[in-house]
Structure formats: structure tokens, C-alpha cells
Amino acid sequence: MGWTLQQPRSRHLLLLFITFRVHAITVVFISKSDTRDLYDHSSVTYKLAEMEMRVDHLTRLYELKDKDVQELIKHFSSVLKTIVKSLNVSVSEDIESLMVAFNKSVEMVRSPMAHFDVYTFLPHLRSHENYLRPLILHSGGRNAVSMVFGVPTVRRQQQTYLIQTLINIVSNMNQTEQKDSLIVVMIGEIDQEYTQQVTAEIKNRLPEAVNSGLVDIIAPSPEYYPDFNKLRITLGDSEDRVRWRSKQNLDYVFLMMYCQPKGSFYVQLEDDVVAKPQFHTIMKKTALQRIADGREWFILDFCRLGFIGKMMRCSDLPWLIQFIVMFYNDKPGDWLLDGMMETKACNLEKDFRDCRKRKDEIWVTFRPSLFQHIGTRSSLNGKIQLLKDSLFKKSVNVKRINKIRGK
User: Fold this and answer.
1) Each residue's pLDDT expressed in tens, for the chain with a length of 407 residues
2) Could you tell me which of 283, 287, 304, 360 has the fewest CB atoms within 10 Å of its CB?
């Protein structure tokens, strides 16, 4: 990860200011509450947990802006050198030292895609940093939301479920939930005619969601992907399957990198799922309650199938992004997620049961499931996918929801 070597004084001042604001808001919150709320410890700790996530988001945004500043410094240094050379004049030692300092400061920073070192594992991007920049097909500029939902989609040979999925997701959120969310559709195709066609269809079928800023639509640069004909054959899979799952992993990476600075929590979805009503509120309250209670977690799992319904803090996404980039050619993404969690939690000197117990402490499964897989035709041509989550029921257990809400 490309952190700068020194933390500038302005960053410390920002964090000090944020800390002061949190305490001030907390005092106001308590002072304006009625007598009953003063004794409602869960209500106060819940608010504090939400503030903690907002502070975390602001801190990450500030770090990203640091990168932009460094890029401006680099550009300024280059322009200054050009001007000096064209005028054919000598510069003082102080100015020369300043120019050298500018260049050194830039060396501490890596790619424009935040803090991710992808170049070691995708070396074709090393000399073309712009290949990591997404093609923004549509964006309302929304950020600082609680929930960011990532929906990767690709061209399917027979049947597509994307519009059905998006309509279902949006219709199962109320207005408050929609204003606190961002749905990012990542079209994993380089055919510009196709990406424009999908974008137009989304705008036509979900005009209110698109115009309100609820939906962003992005696609990768054509040069983002490596040469898939040079992949190693792994797991005894066919060449087609290795190419399919390797590209899928890189689609996940691209989508997560874009979503990471947009909100507090990230939820991985697919383009062929349906959701239950109030899924946003249930997921957010579950996460904030665990934070308020001081219970450790890395993944909150709201669907047992593959990568669907996996919820993480946006600040934790770099761990997963880097892990997938390193092993994108080796295994499917959901297997890599399981492998990373095993690496984080398990003691090799203990048995499988101990490993399972430790993983369950940070990979928490919610029951009943909030998402169901509806597709039957996989994006891998010729593959039939009939898997269903048996924990997905037609109606959500009301007692369970009320317990999450603290009632």
C-alpha cells in the first residue's frame, strides 16, 4: 500500500478537528435527548459507532486528496523546469532545492488509484497509470454514504438479469435508505457500443434512481486487462474457465477500488440477485451494533452463496483488493476471500475445529439471508448455475429485525 512516509501537519490538525467535533456532537446529542435517552446506553453507543465510521470515511478522503496534491506538485515541478529551460536563465540554489524537494515528495506516492500496489502483479499497468482510471458512463457525484453496493456485470450469451436485479434492489429501499446508499454498476466489458447500450437501458428503466445520484455506472479502460492468453492453468480447470474466473477477479478489484472512498460500508452483490425489504437498514444496524458493542468482525455475511451479500468496512477493502490481485490467476474470488480469512484467523498448530471457530468470530453469518441468487445461466458460456440459498425465506423474521433495532 502506498502510504506516504511522513504524515503532514495538516493531517494531524484535521484529525484533531474531527475528534473535537465528535465529542462536541456527542455532548449535544446527549444534552438534547430526553430523560429516558440518557439511560439508553445502546442508543448512545450506536450513535458513537456511526460517528466513528464517518470519521474513518473523512480520514480516508483526506488521504486520497493528499495524492491529488502530490500529482499537482509533480506537474508544477515539470512546468517550472520547462519555463526555466525555455528562458535560458539560471536559478538560485533555493529554487533548485525546492524543485528537487518537489520531485522527492512525489517519489513517496504510488498510483492515482489511492493506496493500491497493483503494478507488481499487473506489470502491464506500470507505465500506463491512466489504465486504472474508470470510464465514468454515469455518475451523480454521490459519496459519504453509509452503504455502497457493488454490482459487477458482463455480457451474457442468452439471458440477462441486470435490470431485474437493479429494480428489485431499488424497490426494496425506502427514500431514506436510498439517500444513504450508492449502487455502483461496473460493466466488465471493453466494447464501447455494448457499455453505452447497457448504460442507456439502465437510464431508461430506472430514471429516478439514476437522476437522483443513487446509481453510478462505470467500465474499465480497454487496456486494464492483461493478456488472458498468457495465464497459468490452475486447479486443473479448462483454459476458458481459468480466463473467466481470472477476469472476474480483476472485475471485482476494479469495482472495489472505485467504491472504496465512496462510503463507510461496502456490500458485494452480483447482477442476478433479489433482496428482501429493508435489507439496507438491517445490514447497517447489524454492523453499527457490533461496532458499538466492541465485537470484532471483518465480514458480515448476508447470503451463503459465493461473493453475494458480503459486507465489509470500506477501510478494510485494501486487504481484500491486494489479496485478490496477488492470486487472481489461481482461484475464484470467493475461494480467495475464504483463504484470506483463514490466513487472518487460523493457527496452523490447531485443528480444523479451532480454525472454524476463529473464522466464525470475524466472518459473521446473518440468518435468515437477505439476498437470493436468481440466475440459472452463468456468465461462463455453457455453465448452468442452479444454486439457491436455503436460508433465504419469503418473509424476514420480525423478532430478529426488532432485536437488531434494539427494540
Assistant:
1) 333 334 444 445 555 555 544 444 444 444 444 445 544 556 666 677 777 777 766 666 656 555 555 555 555 556 556 665 666 655 555 555 655 554 544 333 333 344 467 888 999 888 777 888 899 999 999 999 999 999 999 998 778 899 999 999 999 999 999 999 999 999 999 999 999 999 999 999 999 999 999 999 999 998 999 999 999 999 999 999 999 999 999 999 999 999 999 999 999 999 999 999 999 999 999 999 999 999 999 999 999 888 999 999 999 999 999 999 999 999 999 999 999 999 999 999 999 999 999 999 999 999 899 999 886 666 666 565 656 656 666 544 333 333 433 33
2) 360
Q: Using H for helix, E for strand and C for coil, what is the string for the chain?
A: CCCCCCCCHHHHHHHHHHHHHHHHHHHHHHHHCCHHHHCCHHHHHHHHHHHHHHHHHHHHHHHHHHHHHHHHHHHHHHHHHHHHHHHCCCCCHHHHHHHHHHHHHHHCCCCCCCCCCCCCCCHHHCCCHHHHCCEEEECCCCCCEEEEEEEEECCCCCCCCHHHHHHHHHHCCCHHHHHCEEEEEEECCCCHHHHHHHHHHHHHHCHHHHHCCCEEEEECCCCCCCCHHHCCCCCCCCHHHHHHHHHHHHHHHHHHHHHCCCEEEEEECCCCEEECCCHHHHHHHHHHHHHHHCCCCCEEECCCCCCCCEEEEHHHHHHHHHHHHHHCCCCCHHHHHHHHHHHHHCCCCCCHHHHHHHHHHHEEECCCCCEEECCCECCCCCCECCCCCCCCCCCCCHHHHHHHHCC
Distance of alpha carbon 223 from alpha carbon 133, whole angstroms: 10
Burial of 186 (0-12, 13-18, 19+ CB in 10 A): buried
Q: Count Cβ atoms within 10 A of the Cβ of residue 212 and give its class: 0-12 exposed, 13-18 middle, 19 or more buried.
A: middle
* Beta bridge mates, 282: none
Q: Is 6 left (phi over 0), alpha (psi -120 to 50) or beta?
A: beta
Can you tell me the distance from the alpha carbon of 305 to that of 324, in angstroms, rounded to the nearest whole number? 18
